[in-house]
Amino acid sequence: MRLPLKEPFGTVFGRIDSRLIILVSVEGEGLTGWGEVVAGEEPRCSYETVSTTQHVIRDYLAPAVWSRPVAGFAELAARPAPFRGHNMAKAGIELAYMDFLARARGQLALLHA
Fold it and tell me: What is the pLDDT of residues 47-90, one digit of tens each?
């Protein structure tokens, strides 16, 4: 999804007026948890990009994480361990799971406080 920025954002790598982002969802028990992958469109600050994170999540991380039920956050965080790097992609999955757990426990307001 392309998200327009409220104000242009500039660094030594250039200026942007919008960001292409990936949203990761975790679904179960009638609930959906959401997480954002913060990778950029080009490999300027990091080797991870929107394209690489989409590929790594779809083809490697999601199958490794969701191949069987998850007993908790520690287990979820351990499952992608065989895959080196790709911390932004892993964080997107973890954030979606955390949001899902908060919604399941009725604690969503704590995340947005």
Answer: 999 999 999 999 999 999 999 988 888 999 999 999 999 999 99
> What is the SS3 string spanning the chain?
CEEEEEEEEEECCEEEEEEECEEEEEEECCEEEEEEECCECCCCCCCCEHHHHHHHHHHHHHHHHHCCCCCCHHHHHHCCCCCCCCHHHHHHHHHHHHHHHHHHCCCHHHHCC
How many Cβ atoms are within 10 Å of 83's Cβ, its own excluded? 13
Query: Considering only CA atoms, which of 48, 38, 45 is closest in space to residue 86?
Result: 48
Is residue 24 within 8 A of residue 13, CB to CB? The reply is no
CATH of residue 43's domain is: 3.30.390.10
* Residue 110 belongs to some domain of the structure: no
pTM summary value: 0.85
Q: Residue type at 59?
A: D
Domains: count for the chain: 1
